[in-house]
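Consider the following assembly input.
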Amino acid sequence: MNDIINKEELLGELDGDWEFLEESVEMLMEDAPNLLAEIKNGLAGNDTEMIWKNAHSVKSMVGNFSAKRAFDAAYHVEGLGRKGVAGEMDIAIASLESEVDLLIEALTDLLKTKQS
Amino acid sequence: MKILVVEDERITRRSIQRHLEKWGHEVITAEDGMVAWSILKEQDIPVVITDWVMPRMDGLVLVRKIRSKNNDHYTYIILLTSKSEKVDIVEGMEAGADDFLSKPFDQNELHVRLRAGIRIIELEQNLEQRNREILAANTRMKNDLDAAATLQQSLLPTSLPKIACLNVAWAYHPCDELAGDILNVIPFDEQHIGVYVADVSGHGVPAALLSVTINKIMDAEKGRTTLLMNHDAEKDEEKIIAPAEVIAKLNDQFQMEKFNHRYFTICYGVLNTATLEFQYVPAGHPPIIKLSKDGALEQLPGRNVAVGWFPGTVYEQHVVQLKIGDRLYLYSDGIPEAMNDDLELFTDNRLLKLLLKTRKESLEQGITKLIHAILKWSPSGQPKDDVSILAIEITNT
């Protein structure tokens, strides 16, 4: 799990507030698909600004979960978007989508450990 | 403390809110710069933590708007940045942000940076409170000074005595609220009139207090012995005390070491309206100017030292025989020593020329023109010293 999220760091930042973690994960699950969809729309419309701004939001969002891989993936997409690089964008976005999925999965598992 | 958190990404927004509330702050949130700006237009919020990249209005524009707003209180702004924006931190600080915080943020770092901001806000609030107190104290002092100035000016001659064969006119322009100059006209009896102009060293309250004291003791009241007049109770007669004796007594009474090293110059004289003899004593004061009907100008002799310098000083008294049409001017050094923007003095020369020029006008008109000339000469129409002048004119009616 520490590969996807740094559990110690995350729980330390939360001060053991599992309720807030649950609330945050719910928001992540609600908001991430919309942001990723906007990023894909940007890709389809060749709108690099739309891509980097939404990637920036994803980056902020996943940064709250000590999720370095997802954060780096969002940072990469944002960087490409800011530079207007379209070439490797589709791969970067797919990678980001995958990292977000993994993050949600890891967080869900983490919440289950508390509930059990 | 009330804190506005501006962040479009709601988990981060909620996370910051949660930390701030845990530390006892009142938190208001906004999802972009536009919403934040509408809140800030309505409320004074001392601390703003704002993201940079946001839809509609970004953090940089918000910071600039806050700084351009004419706030009563300072707003401490922490700009949230992420790794990719660090190169732009200088731009954010130049726009008016006080500090920045990198995302993803560490709660301890947020706490420390916030404490620094709150210290600044509290210092600013303390300073503002002190300023309010100083302003209130200044207002009280100004009101007191205005009241004192009104009181001091009430001591000036209000209705000039109607004396046959004599015109009297005066002008008085303090350089501050209170003046160190004082002048007066003292009608002793049907045949004698006393006049003086005094100028206490320095300005402000101490000089004004001394000038008021001079005014109170330079008094003549029938049936009572004063500094200016002896009352013989047996004969029920009054005798005007010679000016030299009056000034000597003032000198003994007002030695400068007893009055915080303040001294004063004075010119005091008594006119006999029957004989037109004018006895006078200048004490460290500018010379009296005599202007005859035919335009002959003369600075009357006599100088003496100022009152308060040396105990036991004997003051030399002078006498001048006046004629119909003669004018006498007693004035403070604020007139010849008035300085313009180039620090050039008004000088006796300009004073004499102006008096001569207005010789054919009434005494009062001449004095008014002189005062206007002094004010015009002085930077921004405000002389650096008190200006006072008292004039008498012998008439034939």
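The interface with chain A takes residues 7-12, 14-15, 18, 22, 51, 53, 55, 82-84, 103-104, 106-107 of chain B (CB under 8 Å). Ask yourself how this observation constrains the way the partners meet.
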